[in-house]
Amino acid sequence: METVLEVKGMTCGHCKSAVEGAAKEVAGVSEAAADIEQGIATITHDESVNIDDVKQSIEDQGYDVK
Predict the structure, then answer these.
(1) Separation of CA 37 from chain center
(2) Is this prediction's pTM over 0.70?
(3) Residues 31, 59, 51, 7, CA torsion sign
């Protein structure tokens, strides 16, 4: 499965890495790709993943996720 999240507050490469790393910490997430210019993160995951857990993990890094 693939889910696209709107992520506010990414401004640099470190932000991109932080968002991707936070998403990948959630069990069942196989890939995460953040796009700074578009303000999105594309999350590839299996069906068992609660996307709210992914959102919370990213928000814990200081970003606003829609």
Answers:
(1) 15
(2) yes
(3) negative
**For each of the chain's 66 residues, which pLDDT tens digit applies?**
999 999 999 999 999 999 999 999 999 999 999 999 999 999 999 999 999 999 999 999 999 999
CA 63 to chain centre: 10
Q: Which amino acid is at 13?
A: G
| Rounded Cα–Cα distance for residues 64 and 39 (Å) | 10
**Which run of H or E residues covers position 57?**
helix 51-59
Report d(CA 45, CA 14) in Å as an integer: 23
- What is 2-65's CATH topology? Alpha-Beta Plaits (3.30.70)
| Residue listed under structure tokens 């790709």 | 33
At which residue do the structure tokens 């968002």 appear? 19
